[in-house]
Structure formats: structure tokens, C-alpha cells
Amino acid sequence: MDMRDVNTFLCILLEFLWTLLKSNYEVIKAMIRVIFPPEPKSVKGDVVLISGTAHGIGREMALRYARLGATVVCVDINAIGNQETLIMIKQEKGNAFKYECDVTNRSAVMQLAETVSKEVGDVTVLVNNAGIMPCKPLLDQTEKEIRLMNDLNVNAYLWMIQAFLPSMIRRNYGHIVSISSMAGIMGFKNLVPYCGSKHAVRGIMDALAVELRNDKRDLSGIKLTTVFPSMVNTGLCHKPRIRFEKLLKLVEPGDAADAIISAMRRDLNEVTIPQDLHYANRYVYRLLPIEAARLWTDFFDAGVDAHDD
Ligand SMILES: NC(=O)c1ccc[n+]([C@@H]2O[C@H](COP(=O)([O-])OP(=O)(O)OC[C@H]3O[C@@H](n4cnc5c(N)ncnc54)[C@H](O)[C@@H]3O)[C@@H](O)[C@H]2O)c1
């Protein structure tokens, strides 16, 4: 070993020790955050754009963000349901706009971003929520169903981020929330393409966080939250199957919306709904060997049965 090698070795050793120290600091910070959760940030004055606001969790989030004083931009392919959501917000004296848009259509999404920027202002909170869930064995799913699901559950999330991230970058301010699912963490029968799409959402958000962090510009003002709901009572799960109903209830869409907004306002990277599943998700399922994890999945026997519509 010559002098240069010794120097390089010492530099790497120092960097390793420094990283170890900082990572321990982050672990302690995370533990403190569990005991003393951060105060929720205000969304007053934010422009919150949500996809899929005509129904379900999207509608409930729109109502709640408006109550918190945000300007809400409701986006959905279903004009009638979206109009109902707008009326509900206006009846509560909230501030909202509505746009009919098929978010799988990239040029429509880019046009939407231009229109919203002119008519409402820069979007500061983007909530990627619209999604569909065909439930049947993989071999019964048609090409059309699978392509549409990936276009909506995956590609549309990317188009929306491409459309609304640039203004967040210009201001170094913003928040992107994406709805994945427990199906984005583990596999379920009758949901093979859906699980793939929700794992993709998780991957997109993880990779986006790394990309923003490695950007030369300071983009620390842009926060990301990925949401992993279990089964929510919106009708999306036509035939939910729950063995221990007292333990694992269908979550009401309003409760899911509350949990998502609370996590976003506390800048949490991820949230599992219901929250008691957080530990099952993070520490049991992800740390156990896969065969052991599957035994627990069999025992709890939660999932969806196949249906045709
Ligand atoms: N409901 C559940 O059990 C559950 C569980 C985990 C995750 N999720 C996820 O939560 C999100 C919301 O689910 P939900 O149960 O509220 O669904 P929902 O069916 O109640 O609402 C979905 C909304 O998306 C809209 N939409 C559909 N296609 C669209 C398109 N091309 N462009 C724009 N809007 C479109 C629909 O019109 C509808 O208003 C989805 O991403 C879903 O995968 C739901």
C-alpha cells in the first residue's frame, strides 16, 4: 500500500463513520417523531389539484382540503360526479374549480396544467388518486383492461407529475401525494396487474425522491407522500373478503381522506391506512422471509374475490 492508497482508505473510512453517525441521528429523529408527531402544516393558500374527485376517496379529500382553506382543483373524467363535488364544496363556502379530463391522455394533462395555471394559479399540492381495479384471475383479464389500468394507475401518475412538478421546482415549494395500496406492498390473488401497478406507484415515488434529492438545485421544499390504503368502502372493491372483520374493517372513505391529509400535512414519506397496519407493513411483512410472510397472509385471509364488471 503506498501513501495515496492509505489516504484514500482513510477518507473512505471517515466518510463511512460520518454516514453511520448521521444515519443513527436520522433513526433517533424518526423515533422522536413517532412519540411527538410534528405539527401539521397549513394548506391555506395552497392550490391542491386532485385526480378522481367525482367519487370515493378523491371527493372526500377535496371536501377536506377546501375546509382547511385550500383552493381545490377537482379533476375527473366523470363530469357529473365532479360537478356534484364542486357543488358540495361551494355549499360549504369553499373555494374550488373543476375540470373534466381523462388523465390517461398525456396531451390533455399538459393542456390541463396550462389552463389551471392561467385560471387558478400554480398547483402547489398534487394528489394522484384516480385509479381502477379489475378483480379476476390474470388469465381472465383482457388486454384492453390491463392496458387501461396501467394507463390510469401508472402512466397517468407520471403525466401528472411531469405536468405539475416544473412549477414546484421553480418555487422550491410543493407536495406530491400518490395513492398506492397495500397491493403495492404484497401480492393478492385476482389482482395481479393491479398489484403490479401499485408496486409501480411505490417505485415511482421512491425514485422521484432520490432524483429530487440528487438535483443540484435546492429542492428540499418539495415533499412527497405515498399512501398505502387497505380496503376502503368506496365500491372499488366489489367483493372484499375479510376473515377477521373486527380486526381489519373496511375503512370509510372520509377516514381514509383524513389519514392521507394528516400524513401530508406532517410531511410523512408514507402512510398506511388503517394506521395500525403500518407496523405489519413496515416491520413484519417487509422484514420476514417471504415464505413466513405468506403464512401470515394466509392466516389473515384478506383480499378480494373475482367479479366480472
Ligand atoms: N377503495 C379501496 O379499497 C382502495 C384501496 C387501496 C387503494 N385505493 C386506491 O385509491 C384511489 C382512489 O380509489 P377509490 O376507491 O376512491 O376509487 P373510486 O372508484 O371511488 O373513484 C375513482 C375516481 O377516479 C375517476 N377516474 C377514473 N378514470 C379516470 C380517468 N381516466 N381520468 C380521470 N379520472 C378518472 C373516477 O371517475 C372516480 O371518480 C385509487 O388509486 C385506488 O387504487 C383504493
What is this structure's SSE topology?
Layout: H1 3-35, E1 47-51, H2 56-67, E2 71-76, H3 79-91, E3 95-100, H4 106-119, E4 125-128, H5 143-171, E5 174-179, H6 192-214, E6 222-229, E7 240-241, H7 253-265, E8 270-273, H8 277-285, H9 290-300, E9 303-304
Parallel strand pairs: 1-2, 1-4, 2-3, 4-5, 5-6, 6-8
Antiparallel strand pairs: 7-9
Helix pairs in contact: 2-3, 2-7, 4-5, 5-6
Nicotinamide-adenine-dinucleotide is lined by residues 51-52, 54-58, 76-78, 81, 102-104, 129-133, 152, 179, 181, 229, 231-232, 234, 236-237.
What can be said about this structure in brief?
The protein has helices spanning 3-35, 56-67, 79-91, 106-119, 143-171, 192-214, 253-265, 277-285, 290-300; strands at residues 47-51, 71-76, 95-100, 125-128, 174-179, 222-229, 240-241, 270-273, 303-304. It is of the alpha/beta class and 309 residues long.
Describe this structure in words.
The protein contains 9 helices and 9 strands. The protein is α/β, with parallel strands linked by helices. It has a single domain (40-304), classed as NAD(P)-binding Rossmann-like Domain (Rossmann fold). It has a 7-stranded parallel sheet, sandwiched between helices. The chain has a two-stranded antiparallel sheet with strand order 7-9. Strand 4, helix 5 and strand 5 (174-179) form a beta-alpha-beta unit. Helix 2 packs parallel to helix 3, helix 4 (106-119) packs parallel to helix 5 and helix 5 runs parallel beside helix 6. The radius of gyration is 21 Å and the shape is globular. The termini are far apart. The mean pLDDT is 94. Nicotinamide-adenine-dinucleotide is lined by residues 51-52, 54-58, 76-78, 81, 102-104, 129-133, 152, 179, 181, 229, 231-232, 234, 236-237.
